[in-house]
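Morning. Coffee machine broken again, so started the prediction first thing and wrote up yesterday's gels while waiting. Chain of 623 residues, entered below exactly as on the submission form.
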Amino acid sequence: MTIKELRQKAMKLPLTPGVYIMKNAKKEIIYIGKAKALKNRVSQYFGSDKTHPEKVRQMVFNVDDFDYILCESEFEALVLECSLIKQHKPKYNILLKDDKGYSYIRISKEKYPRLSFEMQKAEDGAEYLGPYMSSWYAKNAVDEAKKIFRLPSCNKVFPRDMNKSRPCLNYYIKQCSAPCCGKISQKDYCESVASAVDFLKSGDTASIRLMTEKMNEAAENLEFELAAKLRDRINAVKRITQKQKVVAANVREQDVIAVMTEGEDACFAVLRFEDGRLYDKEDFLIKDIGGQVDLLSLRREFIQQFYTMRTKIPPVVTLDGEIENEELLTQWLSEKTATKVRLIHPQKGEQMHILAMAKQNAAERLAQSRGHLGHELTALDELAKLLGLSKVPVFIESYDISNLMGTENVAGMVVFKNGRPYKDSYRRFKIKGFVGQDDYASMNEVLTRRFEEYFKNKDSGEGFGILPDLILLDGGKGQVSAVRPVLERFGLNIPLFGMVKDGSHRTRAITDEGREIAITSRRQAFTLVSTIQDEVHRFAVGYHRAARKKKTFSSSLTNIDGIGKERAKALLSYFKTIDRIKTADVEELMNVREMNRPAAEAVYRYYHYEDGSVINRMNDEQN
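Came back before lunch.
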């Protein structure tokens, strides 16, 4: 069917709740959705596509027909939608890869047993603890046990590799007993492994109670060395437990969910808490979500998919923002678990700290998948929220003007890509439109020239052919007002702000034409903006100094008979520095295409005595 035919069919749908099923030309289901009013929702797809995200446009382009199922209520439509998505796994719905499997803790059978985390249980004679549903928990439990009971984490085999090297750092920071160097007997080592296994089987509370009983018994029997060893283990368990424990006030059991987006990708992180302690962490990468991300819809689809895969639903689900169809999802989750479930999105307090941790985990995972660092993505997300941007800015352009009393008026443009300097796209501008000092007019000219270049090169997708997601000007409201007409003239809708400094020339705030936004309380965003402002200032001032220096050199050369501006420019282009020109002989000077022998001899005589010795004029000019 054509789009027109699909719209005509959609306009005949009833204004009742239901599920719609989009199909391609091969009759394959490519998208499933639910609606409160089928006619209104489905017809939107086949109207104007100007407001559609790219992913929706692609889906609509591939739709050849659609079916629908009427439901008694919107809630019934939601339940059916979840069931159909799980059954058919349509291409354009969010599909989470559930790699949740069982994992184990292995205790090897050898003279010096080793603890390890394993994804599979093998028939190798070793002892296995588990299975554990959370591989994150099992892995961390092994790491904790090794640190507490000072068990080796290296790959050495004992006794084969004993006494072949010195103890590693872990021995000196009291995280290993160094069996590799005979610092512990086999008997004591095996006893430590047995205690570690008891700890893993019974948990920290029972383990502390058991070791306390043994410590008191050892003290009564005057076995003070053993009592001291058990005391140290008890303290180690307590330290590790407190370090790993994250308490949320008045919320003992909950899931905390946060999302990070960048470009066409997103990542959800889920932190799962029980008894106030983090016991599991999961993250999910989602590709090709489209450039214009509707986070409310994205969160809703994720919640549906995640809790379709998971049977354990806590009484509280904490989210990092608003969610589409919140009441319906709350009802759906409550009915699935047969207890009341609350969806909350806090704005302050301890819950916000836990959300920040989830956000950082999502940022780190997403950043790794895209080849950069998590804190860079977190800073960009923080900046986007601070400025009210619709998406995280991948490309940020920043501009600064530099001159000295109106002379050598230049500008610098720096580009940050994914929170890092992208020096391949740095550009320098020499102000050509006027003579004198006018930072506003200079900024207007530079941005005009920059976007003229964009329309010449936009098909290349490189350099000037890329539009920034955010423009930051070194300056206040005046600079923003000078550049705004440029964007309007070119029909560009790019967020534009100025970076304001305080009396000590440190970044203080970000401004548009009507308000100032304080950023000092947002640590990562503040660091990023400060770095951008310092970098663009450095780049612009560096260009200005180079221009002044070149002009000074050129002026000294034009004092020589027969050397005009063109020859002076050619000499500087060839030799790069005035010092190299001063020490060049006549033949070397003649290597410059614009030079002839009389001109080369004139330059040589200017910087040398007739006997060839260097004159004092060199020092005089440098001074």
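The first helix runs from residue 3 to 10. Going to sketch it on the whiteboard this afternoon.
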